[in-house]
Each structure stands twice: as structure tokens, then as C-alpha cells.
Amino acid sequence: MIRLNVFIQVEEAKKAELVSAAKELVAASVKDQGCIAYDLFQSETRADVLMICETWTDEEALKAHEQSAHFTTLVPRMQALAAMKIEKFNF
Asked: Which residues, including other chains, have CB under 8 Å from residue 85's CB and lie 6 or more apart?
């Protein structure tokens, strides 16, 4: 399995738009084949930090997700609104 932790730091003025795009991404991504979990979290200690935690069955499922219409549309929009950092773990 593969786990991605995507850390997002966003300015307050852009947060509502970012959260809207992230929720749309989550709703579409949980339907992707091989998706075990896809969750959006808000930091309890920092209002400007969110995290998307994804779990995939394998690299093939993750690659298909990264080529999906929802990913190629929403992720660039999110990247334009916020700083994003990815941690990837195989287990």
C-alpha cells in the first residue's frame, strides 16, 4: 500500500476556495479504483494548515488517480492557492 500525506499551507483570504476545491477532490477521488482512503484534515493548532491523507492499494492505482480529470483539474487550482508538500510512504 501507499500513503500520501499532503500538507497544505494557505492564507486566510484563499482558504475557503482551497477547501472547496479540496473537498471536490476528495469526493471524486474516493471513487477511484484502488483508493482505500482519502481524507481532508484541518490542523487544530494552526488555522493555515490542512492535510490530505491518501491511501492507495498500489502504484498503478495512484498513477491512474494522478491522470484522472479531477486530479489534473483540481490539483493545479489548489497549487495556485497554497503551498503544498507531499510525503510518500510505502507499507
From this structure: 6, 7
Do the beta carbons of residue 18 and residue 8 sit within 8 Å?
Answer: yes
Cα gap 25→77, rounded to integer Å: 11
Give me 56's grid cell.
492507495
Q: What is the pLDDT of residues 15-40, one digit of tens each?
A: 999 999 999 999 999 999 999 999 99
Residue 33, CA distances (Å) to 22, 41, 42, 52, 80 in order = 19, 22, 26, 18, 27
Can you tell me whether residue 4 is helix, strand or coil? strand
Contact status, residue 77 vs residue 58, Cβ threshold 8 Å? no
